[in-house]
Design brief:
37% helix; 5-stranded antiparallel sheet; 11 strands; alpha/beta; single chain; elongated; 6-stranded mixed sheet; 282 residues
């Protein structure tokens, strides 16, 4: 359960902003893409979608484990999404999915991934099902339940004394690394609403004054918005969520995810140029 515990410690547990399956998978894929020095799959969301089309990854119990495999070695990485309302995922048992655990699996970690998913499913069954998460009032409660399940899986495989020590250390690490506060879970996420005016100017509404200033000064912002592109600015990765036209103006709604490494300077593009919907090259 190491990768799930790492996700909790590093802030990759989020409340999904949409109950649509495709948008939820795209959101989680972008969280994994934001992990520093991630090797392997350059277009993670597209690869994830292809695998999902080939075989639905709803494992039952209100849980889904979408995944993509990559050549070579590296760490097993996951991002966790909680849906309070549930996602019509098409799982074989017909139940809505409330917990989506997305995995990035290097070839060297295939067996580790299978063991982790098996341990997660076993812990959920042992704890009586997904209802504590499905009915949770907030992301803090979800985090506590997941820590319980991770602990249960650990305790099933190692002596009690060591398990209790690991459980205590895990809770302390999560509390220190992912403090609760405004935003989605412990991750630093802000909403950026950008109004594209008919005269070519933009108005930005965002909680980050630094990001607002950078976006409003950028001359090349309009084409990125029209492409519904993903791009990096001011230390944030901006992920397209929706666009609403209002006569001669358009409101673009983005989620800005704080990057763990410095983003590209304003006026520059990510390697490979601007990206279109879902991160595809424009």
């Amino acid at each position: 359960m190491k990768s799930l515990l790492n996700a909790l410690q590093e802030g990759r547990l989020v409340e999904l902003p949409d109950s649509d399956k495709g948008k939820s998978l795209e959101y989680l894929a972008h969280l994994i893409e934001a992990v520093p020095d991630l090797p392997g799959v350059p277009e993670l969301y597209e690869a994830m979608q292809q695998r999902e089309t080939a075989a639905n990854t709803g494992i039952g119990l209100g849980v889904a484990c979408p995944h993509v495999r990559a050549a070579g070695s590296g760490e097993l990485i996951c991002a966790v999404g909680w849906s309070p309302t549930g996602i019509d995922y098409g799982a074989t048992d017909g139940k809505k999915v409330h917990l989506v655990v997305m995995y990035y699996i290097p070839d060297s970690q295939k067996n580790v991934y299978l063991k982790e998913v098996s341990s997660l499913a076993g812990a959920i069954r042992k704890e009586g099902g997904i209802s504590p998460i499905a009915s949770a009032e907030d992301i803090a409660t979800v985090r506590e339940r997941l820590l319980d399940w991770v602990s249960a899986a650990i305790e099933a495989n190692i002596p009690d004394a060591k398990a209790r020590m690991i459980r205590l250390e895990a809770r302390q690490a999560v509390a220190e690394a992912a403090p609760l506060g405004p935003g989605v879970g412990g991750l630093q996420v802000v909403r950026a609403m950008i109004i594209a005016l008919s005269d070519g100017h933009t108005v930005v509404l965002c909680q980050s004054s630094e990001l607002t200033a950078v976006l409003e000064k950028e001359n090349g912002l309009r084409p990125l918005l029209e492409q519904q592109a993903q791009f990096d600015r001011a230390g944030y990765r901006l992920v397209f969520h929706s666009a609403i036209p209002f006569d001669t103006r358009t409101l673009y709604d983005y989620w800005a995810i704080k990057l763990a490494v410095p983003a590209a300077a304003p006026g520059t593009q990510e390697p490979g140029g601007p990206k279109g919907p879902g991160g595809t090259p424009a």
